[in-house]
Each structure stands twice: as C-alpha cells, then as structure tokens.
C-alpha cells in the first residue's frame, strides 16, 4: 500500500510539471484561438534569463521576477511582430509558425548559453517530508501548490474579470469584438504576454528538477499537449486534473502493468487520448462548440 501511495504522490508531482505548460497553452488558446507549440521554448528562454541573472549576482527570487517581466514583453512582442501576420489567415499556417518559433528559440538559447547542462537553483528547500511511510519533497509540494494557485487565478480571470471576458470574446470572434469597441490588438498582446508569464513560472519550477538545457521541456510539452486534449482546451481546471491523471497513471502502469513497464509508459497518455476522444471529443471538462449553419 505504501508503494502505491508513493507512486501516486510522485505522479502528482510529475503531473504538476505538465500542468504548468498546459495552463499556458490554454491561456493562449482562450485568448487567440491558437495552439502555441513554442510555449516550451519560451519557458526555457525565461529560465535561461533567470539563470543568467543569478550568475550576475542577483537573488533567485529577483531573477525570477525579472524573467517574468521579460517573458511578458517577449510574449507580447511575438504576437505583435510575428503572429499577428498569421492570426487572420489559415490557423494551420499559424500553428506551423509556432513550431518554427520553437526551433528558433531553442537554437538561440543553445547559441547564447551552449547546450551543456546547467544547474538551476530551486525556489523551495530540497528537504523531504515523511508521512505514513510516504516521502514527499518540499519542492514537489511547493510546485503543486503554485500550479493549484495558477489554475484558480486563471479560472477566475476568464470567468470573473472583464479582461478575461474580453480575451474570450476576441478569441471567439475578433471581428465582432472589434465592432463592439474592444481593442483587439492590445488584448491579443496581453493574452500572449500572460501565457509567456505562465511559461516563465513553469520554467522556474521545472529547471531545478531537471538540468537546464535548450531542449529541457520538449518531452514535457508533449505531455502538456496530451493534458490539454484530455482536459479540454476551454478548462484550466480540466487540464490540471488531466495532467495529474497522466502523471499518476503513467507511474502506476510502469510498475503494475508488466508489458508496459518503464520503457512503454510514454504510451499511456496517448492511450488515454484515444479513449477519451472516442467518448468525449471536447475533452473530459471541455465545452462543446455549437456552430449555426
């Protein structure tokens, strides 16, 4: 029983990493209607910026706060000077552009700071807490709490604030939003900027668990996209639950399902996607889109 609980706890910790990126993807989609495949690269760039600032002698918390500001500016600039040229066209073209942007950002990070592994200081202590035979690191607890707070704030943003409602209106129908007097261009920049901020938080949380490299979040991005599909593109709450579910089931399947093991556990989220899409194409917590024709 202790082994089972330990696997669940470790899965929740890993799932929180996926959830951080998934929330940023949901934010961009809710604000622009696009899937941003460059989200992981932008998060890594923010983590490198914070790491560089710490090497200049700044305290870690100050470096992370400055990287958050840097990320907001970067996200807004990407929307204004790059994505805006494609947002009104074919969505598939815009998605391909984000894939190219991911490759570009990864290359820039490697060119500036090399592809060698770098150590990133953790925001939380490395101590562990033991309870009923289960060991949980303080870092995992802190990461999970930050993700829960981000999920709640994002849900409140889109449901309870005028800014969130305006972002949703722009994503659903930018032409009607413009006719209603909403500043569509500025709202799109804000949406991308806020998503980049979430990415910066994700990078700061993930980098200490791994080693800081340009491709640090490539695998996590795949799991984050799986969580978005499972949880639903319209539900911050849903993608976090889906990310936790993926992390837990992946751990349990690796240990308790012999033919899967640790080598094939990467297939677990894709099996879940297949099953869920057959039953609920909009995701576990997503809303159906009704189109009048």
UniProtKB/TrEMBL annotation:
Subcellular location: Cell membrane
Any Pfam family matching the protein: BPD_transp_2
GO cellular component, one term: plasma membrane
Keyword annotations from UniProtKB, A to Z: Amino-acid transport, Cell membrane, Membrane, Transmembrane, Transmembrane helix, Transport
Species this protein is from: Blastococcus tunisiensis
Keyword Ligase: no
Segments passing through the bilayer: 6-27, 60-82, 94-114, 134-158, 190-208, 220-247, 253-279
Family per similarity comment: Belongs to the binding-protein-dependent transport system permease family. LivHM subfamily.
Biological process annotations from GO: amino acid transport
GO molecular function, one term: transmembrane transporter activity
Bilayer disposition of the protein: Multi-pass membrane protein
Main localization, broad class: membrane
UniProt name for this protein: Amino acid/amide ABC transporter membrane protein 1, HAAT family
């Amino acid at each position: 029983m202790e082994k089972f609980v330990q696997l669940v706890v470790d899965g929740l910790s890993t799932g929180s990493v996926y959830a951080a990126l998934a929330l940023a993807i949901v934010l961009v989609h809710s604000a622009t209607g696009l899937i941003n495949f460059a989200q992981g690269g932008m998060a890594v760039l923010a983590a490198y910026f914070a790491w560089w600032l710490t090497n200049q002698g700044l305290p870690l918390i100050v470096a992370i706060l400055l990287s958050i500001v840097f990320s907001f500016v970067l996200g807004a600039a990407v929307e204004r000077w790059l994505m805006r040229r494609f947002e009104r066209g074919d969505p598939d073209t815009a998605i391909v552009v984000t894939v190219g942007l991911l490759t570009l950002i990864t290359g820039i990070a490697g060119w500036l700071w090399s592809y060698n592994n770098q150590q990133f200081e953790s925001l939380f202590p490395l101590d562990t807490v033991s309870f009923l035979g289960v060991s949980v690191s303080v870092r995992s607890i802190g990461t999970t709490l930050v993700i829960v707070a981000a999920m709640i704030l994002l849900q409140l943003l889109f449901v309870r604030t005028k800014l969130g409602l305006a972002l949703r209106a722009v994503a659903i129908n930018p032409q009607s939003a413009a006719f209603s007097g909403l500043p569509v261009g500025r709202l799109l920049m804000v949406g991308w900027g806020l998503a980049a901020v979430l990415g910066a938080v994700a990078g700061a949380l993930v980098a200490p668990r791994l080693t800081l490299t340009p491709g640090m979040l490539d695998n996590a991005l795949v799991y984050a996209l799986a969580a978005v599909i499972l949880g639903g593109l319209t539900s911050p709450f849903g993608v976090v639950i889906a990310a936790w579910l993926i992390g837990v089931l992946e751990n349990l399947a690796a240990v308790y399902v012999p033919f899967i093991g640790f080598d094939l556990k990467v297939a677990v989220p894709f099996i879940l996607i297949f099953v869920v899409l057959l039953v609920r194409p909009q995701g576990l917590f997503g809303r159906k889109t009704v189109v009048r024709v």
